[in-house]
Amino acid sequence: MPEPAQPSSAPKSSGRLTPKSIVIWALVALVGAVAWGVLALSRGEEISAAWMLAAALGSYAIAYRFYSRFIARRVLKVDKTRATPAERLDNGVDFHPTDRRVLFGHHFAAVAGAGPLVGPVLAAQMGYLPGTIWIVAGVIFAGAVQDMVTLFFSTRRDGRSLGQIARDEIGPFGGAAALIAVFLIMIILLAVLALVIVNALADSPWGVFSIAMTIPIALFMGVYLRVMRPGKVSEVSLIGVALLLLAIVAGGWVAESSLADTFTLEAGTLVIWMIVYGFLASVLPVWMLLAPRDYLSTFMKVGTIALLAIGVVVAMPTMKMDAVTEFASRGDGPVFAGSMFPFVFITIACGALSGFHSLISSGTTPKMVQKETQIRMIGYGAMLTESFVAIMAMITACIIDPGLYFAINSPAGVIGGTVESASQAVANLGFTISPDQLAQAAKDVEEASLLSRTGGAPTFALGMAEIFSSVIGGAGMKAFWYHFAIMFEALFILTTVDAGTRVGRFMLQDMLGNVYKPMRQVSWKPGVWFASAVVVGAWGYFLWVGVHDPLGGINQLFPLFGIANQLLAAVALAVCTTLLVKSGRLKWAWVTAVPLAWDAAVTLTASWQKIFSEDPKVGFFKQREVYQTGIDNGEVIPPAKSMDDMHTVVTNSTVDGVLCALFAILIIVVIVDAGRVCYKAIRHPESVKLSETPYVKSELVAPAGMFATKEEKAELAAAETKTSAGAGAGTGSS
């Protein structure tokens, strides 16, 4: 049956528009509209990147103020009087009421991984306009909606994982398909995220040292906040940021000292350390390492991106990439093959809509949120913040010379291994850059070469160095800012891997709990250790394969990553739509059903092409056929350098193709079964059964947003007075 209505607890006077606020929001809308007009109508001339900032920020502000508020109050009807799982089930391990500012930091750090940095950079080969439109429109109407609604429904169900919610609400058949699909997709996502880190940190003592130091700093912050000075969030934040900055500076010292060799690790060694760290982050109490480390890295992430935005406003760099390139229509781009529809949407992934976020929103975060009213800020707000990161990534890719962009992002098989061959290959693509310019670009950032540095991270770092050096330090500081950006990206992504591993553990425990009930106890030690080992072992395998892939792991795995990520979003949106219908919110089901329809169309089209395309650059099985034929004929096909490489390509292409087909089939099963459940709920509402946890009155008092309102300050003061009075009475009676 539909959920029982609870009395609305939102302040009636809160958020009403006044004449002053109407004028302000009208100006915000006007600036955004003008900026979008400039971006859309400019052709053949360079425009300032500041217009992209204005368009994005104006759109985000309006979406958060109006659309997210509408969803929270009218669609979800969040209730601040209802106790969350963190309050009811607090055990100090996985369930723990966490300050909204710390939790926002954890959630943002956990969801903002490689996608918003890498995807937009790769998609820039089609021009800045298609990707920018999808990043902004996609996050407002799809990505942020998915994150917030999933977080709400998981919070109402004791923080259960997405797959388990699907099994409980859709049924055993579609639910089983969802459980399997979600877990397998999760493994691929974590492997790709970890691969980007390994590529960024390999042979980089500065980056390895700085990233390693964030672990003891986070452990200190966790103990400080829980044992030494409970509740002193601002205090521990200042200490943590100071230590983080010291670690970054010290990384530069280490790189120039005798310790450099100790922290210079090969890719294979980094894989082992990544697996060890992922396991520890999964089994330790959430307050000890995961939450404080993610909160700490959020300062680094948000601070750097904010400074980058300020740098854009000050330096006013121009967009050198065309608004729409010829590769958008031809589909034969050197960075990735495929037409604009569907592959620009698949490639951008996390910046606009990310299924991975639904795993965090139904994993760690719902077990720590204090109040339902905070779901809007954490779910919708954190996703808008990540989308802004994607916008900054698009800017960094498009302000550098297009010839340099394609020399960096094209594989060696396309441009060769010398600056002369790269210059000629870029000219064949329709862009111009001389061998001397390519050599000088590498020299400016103290790198031996920038050719074929695929994966997006080096391009983002180069664009960031371009902006920062034009504001602070000049050309002489470009190398410093480049290496700072590389380290920043690794820190950015690592926080997603540790939180993702823990979420993967929750999912596996949920799955195994259907067979062996003690596994459902998420803090049961044997289950925690076993499930964590299985998860890190699984993504560790694909990480190892990616590191040793002759075609470049990122080139092989990122298309599968994008498709899997978007298919996972289809699962989340299907589950959310089902729950809206079953809980008596049919008239609002379009909020998730419309983005579900779009996402399914895009991802299933991409899946079809990756499975059946006759272009070996697009189709996994066609690629397998080409390399298998080469093996049969005793021929080594570049970029493979040996028969062992040829066999590796065949194996990896086969695995990728099979997984792509399996994911698509499972998602179709989930969507069809969800449709069946929705139809039944509409026709026979009396038969509806919800697995929602019964209402329990909350005893906690906490603000809904980042800053407490006047009414919330009064509530906090009253709660403190009541607590003090109770403590005084207790002391007197003793």
TrEMBL record:
<feature type="transmembrane region" description="Helical">
    <location>
        <begin position="173"/>
        <end position="198"/>
    </location>
</feature>
<feature type="transmembrane region" description="Helical">
    <location>
        <begin position="339"/>
        <end position="360"/>
    </location>
</feature>
<feature type="transmembrane region" description="Helical">
    <location>
        <begin position="557"/>
        <end position="581"/>
    </location>
</feature>
<feature type="transmembrane region" description="Helical">
    <location>
        <begin position="236"/>
        <end position="255"/>
    </location>
</feature>
<keyword id="KW-0472">Membrane</keyword>
<feature type="transmembrane region" description="Helical">
    <location>
        <begin position="204"/>
        <end position="224"/>
    </location>
</feature>
<feature type="transmembrane region" description="Helical">
    <location>
        <begin position="108"/>
        <end position="127"/>
    </location>
</feature>
<feature type="transmembrane region" description="Helical">
    <location>
        <begin position="480"/>
        <end position="501"/>
    </location>
</feature>
<feature type="transmembrane region" description="Helical">
    <location>
        <begin position="381"/>
        <end position="408"/>
    </location>
</feature>
<feature type="transmembrane region" description="Helical">
    <location>
        <begin position="588"/>
        <end position="608"/>
    </location>
</feature>
<keyword id="KW-1133">Transmembrane helix</keyword>
<comment type="similarity">
    <text>Belongs to the peptide transporter carbon starvation (CstA) (TC 2.A.114) family.</text>
</comment>
<dbReference type="GO" id="GO:0009267">
    <property type="term" value="P:cellular response to starvation"/>
</dbReference>
<feature type="transmembrane region" description="Helical">
    <location>
        <begin position="47"/>
        <end position="67"/>
    </location>
</feature>
<feature type="transmembrane region" description="Helical">
    <location>
        <begin position="133"/>
        <end position="153"/>
    </location>
</feature>
<feature type="transmembrane region" description="Helical">
    <location>
        <begin position="267"/>
        <end position="290"/>
    </location>
</feature>
<keyword id="KW-0812">Transmembrane</keyword>
<keyword id="KW-0813">Transport</keyword>
<feature type="transmembrane region" description="Helical">
    <location>
        <begin position="22"/>
        <end position="41"/>
    </location>
</feature>
<protein>
    <submittedName>
        <fullName>Carbon starvation protein A</fullName>
    </submittedName>
</protein>
<feature type="transmembrane region" description="Helical">
    <location>
        <begin position="655"/>
        <end position="679"/>
    </location>
</feature>
<dbReference type="InterPro" id="IPR003706">
    <property type="entry name" value="CstA_N"/>
</dbReference>
<dbReference type="Pfam" id="PF02554">
    <property type="entry name" value="CstA"/>
</dbReference>
<keyword id="KW-1003">Cell membrane</keyword>
<dbReference type="InterPro" id="IPR051605">
    <property type="entry name" value="CstA"/>
</dbReference>
<feature type="transmembrane region" description="Helical">
    <location>
        <begin position="302"/>
        <end position="319"/>
    </location>
</feature>
<feature type="transmembrane region" description="Helical">
    <location>
        <begin position="527"/>
        <end position="545"/>
    </location>
</feature>
<feature type="domain" description="CstA N-terminal">
    <location>
        <begin position="49"/>
        <end position="606"/>
    </location>
</feature>
<dbReference type="GO" id="GO:0005886">
    <property type="term" value="C:plasma membrane"/>
</dbReference>
